[in-house]
Amino acid sequence: MRKVWLVVGVLMMCAVAGVESAHAPSPAADCSTVVLNMSDCFSFMSSGSKESKPQSTCCSGLKTNTECLNDALSNDAQFGVGLDMTKALTLPSAYGVSIPSVSNCREMASSRGVLFLSSGTAMLPHPSKALTGGEDAFFVAHNWLGVADGVGQWSLKGINAGIYARELMDGCAKMVSEFQGDHRIKPEEILIRSAAEAYSFGSSTVLVAYFNGQALNVANIGDSGFIIIRNGSVLRRSSPMLHGFNFPFQIGRGDDPSKLIEGYKIDLEEGDVVITATDGLFDNLYEQEIETIVSKSLEANLKTKEIAGFLASRAQEVGMSASLMSPFADAARAAGYKGETGGKLDDVTVIVSFVQRSPNFHSE
């Protein structure tokens, strides 16, 4: 009966929080379903509980839902549950707070660890732009990553759009560092804040992604994108955002990215592979070829950086060909450019990320 009333209390508080924060969802609103699934944790931690240890379902919840547990421990009132903090602190929280000698969940959680991204990168500039570094940019920080592709047409006005793209990515890396530990910050917020501080002329496509240990959250503008491969097959991929053939959505100085962002949220599993790249990859390699290269690379036990290098090199090889078939040539013919063959020589940036399980329980 105690557990029933506990769940009812959480439901009521989450419903109220959702009404009061209709314009800005609170952590309670975001975490309501997760909190209900972790009710066994709260029945152990709640004030007056006579339980001497949490149930195994609580330990399972801790491994995947540390962000919501963090909200509960830092502000238990928002969930309508009074906590016995002495008991609460015997559990590993999202703050990393634990007392190993008395933690009831530590051993179970440590035996499996938490999921994280292990990433490797490759960036090949267009041969004619090698001296200036090309117009692509990227960043990787913990479970965050991003790519940007400066729009080449700016060169007709004497402007290197790669500078603007690098400002976007540098800004994202800076924001991620500043908000490190705050799991509630979203990729679209990082993108918007970074764009507000980029000051150079030019424009760029941009993708920012964050893996919270359970789902990959993506904010995308333009024709950079991602492919997720699970068990040798493509699970999900992004769709290019285009005004028309070879004319991607993009942002420039002073633009409001929020009007253009397309968001994704995809649950990931251990062993998944995430390929994030600029259009230099996707214009030249078909989905099936990317899938095949990744699968063969995994069989050969190659590292993420090596796989990224193979993908980038193959993309430029196709880009230099006037006869090979490519997604770019297909799109050109569909747009009315009859007889178009070959690839599109371009800058290529690739980030390959393995979804792995850490040996110890921690929160990025």
From TrEMBL:
InterPro entries the record matches: Bifun_inhib/LTP/seed_sf, Bifunc_inhib/LTP/seed_store, PPM-type-like_dom_sf, PPM-type_phosphatase-like_dom, PPTC7
Q: Which domain of life is it from?
A: Eukaryota
Q: Which family does it belong to?
A: Belongs to the PP2C family.
- Look up the signal peptide feature and give its range: 1-21
Catalysed conversion reaction: O-phospho-L-threonyl-[protein] + H2O = L-threonyl-[protein] + phosphate; O-phospho-L-seryl-[protein] + H2O = L-seryl-[protein] + phosphate
What CDD domains is this protein classified in? AAI_LTSS
Cofactors demanded by this protein: Mn(2+); Mg(2+)
Keywords for this protein? Hydrolase, Magnesium, Manganese, Metal-binding, Protein phosphatase, Signal
| The EC number(s) this enzyme carries | 3.1.3.16
Q: Write down the top EC class of this protein.
A: hydrolase
The residues covered by the PPM-type phosphatase domain are: 121-355
**Entry GO MF terms:** metal ion binding; protein serine/threonine phosphatase activity
> What is this protein's record name?
Protein phosphatase
